[in-house]
Amino acid sequence: MRFPALLLLLAAFAVPTITGQTIDNIQRLDGSTISAADATAFAQKTLAAEHVTGAQLAVIRKGRVVWSSAFGLRSREPELPMQTSTNTWAASITKSVFATYVMQLVERGEFDLDKPVAQQLEKPLDTYDPYKESASELVKDPNWPLVTPRMLLSHSSGLANFAFIEADKKMRLHFKPGTQFLYSGEGVNLVQFVIEQKMRKPLDQILQEALFGPLGMTQTGLIYRKEFAANVADRYDLNEKFRSQTKRFPARGAGSMSTSVDDLAKFAVALLNGKLLKKATEKEMLQPVLHIDSLHEFALRANEGPGQDAKDVSLAYGIGWGLLTHTRFGPAFFKEGHGDGAQNYIICFTGSRSCMILLTNSDNGELAFRPLLETLLGDTVTPWEWEGYTPEYIEASRKAN
Length: 401
Prior knowledge:
This protein is of the alpha+beta class. The chain has helices at residues 5-12, 36-49, 93-107, 117-120, 149-153, 185-199, 203-212, 261-272, 279-285, 308-312, 369-377, 384-387, 391-400, and strands at residues 25-27, 33-35, 54-61, 64-76, 79-81, 88-89, 235-236, 242-244, 258-259, 290-291, 315-317, 322-324, 332-339, 342-349, 354-360.
């Protein structure tokens, strides 16, 4: 049996860690409620059934954390319990946290989202050491001078996810910038590079000073720090076999952040309550840059065509966040985090200032997302097929890889 007896025992005694006022019931998006005890029991059962090695969950309602709990193991050898303060790889949720910081710069007039990247650098991109090889063809493209940070942060620049997946390992534009959606970590890292050049500081130091330190996010960083060692999650595969320790280097705006659900909830609460951005700046960040009608975020095959999921919620992308612009619960913003042995998700509904955060150290994490979101938060509007949170998509993508 893949799920060890100790893990079941730990889950059975998981106690919600409540920030602020203790509550008996969690109010869902539709106004119905679930007791904290039932939420814990349901999460325990669901995570065990899907063989999720460890998980941290939190629910935010009206801008405050009302329930959080950790389940399973952060390490199997030795066996150590997951905690809500355990440092866990957030993967691509990094992009949204980084984009929120970028909007702070925009708010202060220190960064221009619409000034082309080529004009914001002191010299051609391919003359900088990190880009000498990968950008040699990109800078020759007549459309390169059109690429702006707004396009890069909304995944509409035309760059592929990363240069290393291109046949020749070189960056290139796959369409006219600003016209289509194509998820690109490469593009987010390029915005990071521009900012680091301007500020003459590495991004891990920048975010520590601007966000993590001020918010008291002591278990969060873009690179591994020795103080994480006492409470850090290892990562596990489909069979709950060890994959890797969570020690991320170097700092990458596209995905190197490790954090805990306690810390990420601090960030989400601050954002929802207007502590990070002025209202107008937040509105700009969550304004659609382009609308999306694709069947999947990451297509399983060429020419998949449009999907009903995207249409149902008027799916779009803003600055660093995916957007559900029309749902029966009002607008929402979200971000996934995919990595080897790390599957994560955060979604927030602006009207009720409600969120759910899910962090796992398991390749099986996504299998539990839909039932957890529907039962604990009452989220029935996340575009499950587009996200790839269906058993059929997960199985197909595993076979493809």
